[in-house]
Design goal:
The chain is mainly alpha-helical and 193 residues long. It is built from 7 helices and 3 strands, in the order αβααββαααα. Pfam families: PadR (PF03551).
Length: 193
């Protein structure tokens, strides 16, 4: 997967986020995760060194608030944002493209898992003992009915999951671990059949 931010753009995006209001590091990480619908959440090891560099450059200041360190944009930081307004627009566009690309990856993974599940269900509907597909005419009517119901249930499940994932992505609550959890759950279901 290509990097979410081009070189130097995460640093600039942190300034954009701090322009709204001061935040501590974890809030910035959450804000980035929310912006990407949970499909990208940077690590503390990615964010804090950039904040330290911004502080060294005088673009942000930090103050202690109990056990937390709160970062705020300085006037020099605001001047930097104003001077790089065109670049910020390009970063915003890149973020939107990255969110779409990450969501497309989740969609493709879920689609592949569903295709695999359908194939496994179809294989399990084969008659025991022969291992070969039977002529559809010779499938007992009870099995044929069960297979149709399974296909309808899978189709309904796919549509419902897709709608739920899109809603979560729109609200910014779709997390990166969703693909793994869905894959694991589908695999466990497949094995239980």
């Amino acid at each position: 997967m290509s990097p979410v931010f081009a070189h130097g753009h995460l640093r600039l995006y942190l300034l954009v986020l701090l322009a709204d209001h001061p935040m501590h590091g974890y809030e910035l990480i959450q804000a980035l995760g929310d912006r990407f619908g949970g499909t990208y959440v940077p690590s503390a090891g990615t964010v804090y060194p950039r904040l330290a560099k911004l502080e060294e450059e005088g673009l942000v200041s930090k103050t202690a608030d109990g056990r937390k360190t709160v970062y705020a944009i300085t006037e020099a930081g605001r001047t930097e944002l104003a001077a790089r307004a065109d670049e910020i627009a390009a970063v915003e566009s890149g973020v939107a493209d990255s969110v779409k690309s990450l969501a497309d990856g989740v969609r493709a993974s879920v689609g592949e898992a569903m295709r695999s599940l359908r194939a496994d269900l179809a294989a399990s509907a084969e008659s025991p003992g022969t291992g070969a597909h039977e002529d559809p005419v010779s499938v007992p009517s009870e099995s044929a009915r069960a297979l149709r119901e399974l296909e309808m249930a899978l189709s309904s499940f796919r549509q419902q999951v897709r709608a739920d994932l899109r809603r979560r992505a729109t609200r910014g609550t779709l997390r990166a671990d969703t693909v793994t959890r869905l894959r694991d759950g589908l695999e466990a279901l497949r094995k239980s059949l």
